[in-house]
Amino acid sequence: MKHAAIKIEEGIQASADPAPSSARVPHLTAAAFCLTATTRGVIERASADRRLTRVKTEIADGGVGQALRVFNGRRTPSLLIVEVSTAGRALLQELDLLAQVCDPETKVVVIGTENDISLYRNLMGRGIAEYLVGSFSPLAYVTMIQTLFGEESATKLGKVFAFVGAKGGVGSSTLAQNVAWTIAEEQASPTLLLDLDFRFGSAAVNLDLKAVTGIEKYMGDPEKLDAALLDRLVVRRGEFLNVLPAFDDPLGDIDPVPEAIERLIDIARASFPFVVLDVPHDWTAASRDALTSADEVIVVASPDLPNLRNARALMGQLRGLRPNDAAPRVILNTCKMPKRKEIVAEKFAKSIGVRNYATMAFDPATFGTASAEGRTIREQAPRGKAQGSVRQLVDSLTSQGKKRPTGLLRRLFGRA
């Protein structure tokens, strides 16, 4: 792997909209009956959200009348959404008819036009789960379903950051490891680094850890994974960083099943305030699930043609997998390498469809020395420029939703 010190030269895109919780809604069925194309479009977009992957939604045109015809003699789903154009007594009469065909466990959400507190109270008294007025966003729809069905609604879930390289050797793993260490040490916050490159991961070597964990025994059977087991398998480094290294035997005959990766991440985010995923450079079901479930994805690439091709394909897939999330952050690493012809950073970013990005200048000495000694750059050169840049990235990742960055950091990351 080529190491690079980090020099942030341009901003990284950030979302201005508050995001829903990371909690995924449990398996359930839903049916939506829409009167307008706008409402149908919002529900269709929201149904593709990563937090609703377990929700099977049937969307149809028509309001209460169509719902009555469809569910006359058929069980209603866990969630029934109806858009209405009536108001007052006419609306209540429609909903009374709907109640006659609804199963007791079905939660009903009404989308209407009348903004009246008396009507709202009347609907709640009739057992309506929620009443939405006018237009709403896909994220508002996701949040509503999380509130109604979220299996972890009472749990504060940790933030998950996934680092993935557009090509092998671009320094994605090294960046993930240093970000995890910096979060743990400088914010004094329990942090988990998950090395998801189970075969050939570098976390144990780069951080000078004893690699024996035995995680491979459980990656073929997700039902055996729980929080207590995770606590026994992680290796502590310092007071706050916990690391789950790769397999003890990289060439063993155990292949992790995608469901195990999914469960491992769910357990991790319920156990730690911050989780950093080092996602391997491949495109397996497990990698897709990891990148889909993360709160933020950081794509690391070098400014050359193979990376450009891969980054373009990767960004396209991620936009499809995460339609309601902010675009992945893009970091161009090992820039300005001597005697190498590079693609200009601005052209690289434009070619993959991003306006805001960061570049990291090539400087093998700092990272190379740290890696050779099993240290992080914070331990090797705590006041160096490289660690200062990692610290800026960490502050940007962990401060979202808490406070606005000011001064240099605010300019670097393009916050308005």
Describe this structure as you would to a colleague.
- With 416 residues, this protein is α/β, with parallel strands linked by helices.
- It folds into 2 domains: 28-149, Rossmann fold (3-Layer(aba) Sandwich); 159-412, Rossmann fold.
- The protein is built from 16 helices and 13 strands.
- The strands form 2 sheets. An 8-stranded mixed β-sheet has the order 8-9-7-10-6-11-12-13, with helices on both faces. Strands 2-1-3-4-5 form a 5-stranded parallel β-sheet, with helices on both faces.
- α2 (64-70) runs parallel beside α3 and α9 (258-271) packs parallel to α10.
- The chain is elongated, with a radius of gyration of 24 Å.
- The two termini are 36 Å apart.
In the CATH hierarchy, the third-tier topology of the largest domain is known as Rossmann fold
Which residues sit in consecutive blocks of at least 5 with pLDDT less than 50? 1-17, 400-416
The 3D shape can be described as elongated
Largest sheet properties? 8 strands, mixed
* Average pLDDT taken over every residue: 83
- Number of self-contained structural domains: 2
Overall number of strands = 13
Which sequence of SSEs, written as H and E, runs from N to C?
A: EHEHEHEHEHEHEHHEEHEHEHEHEHHHH
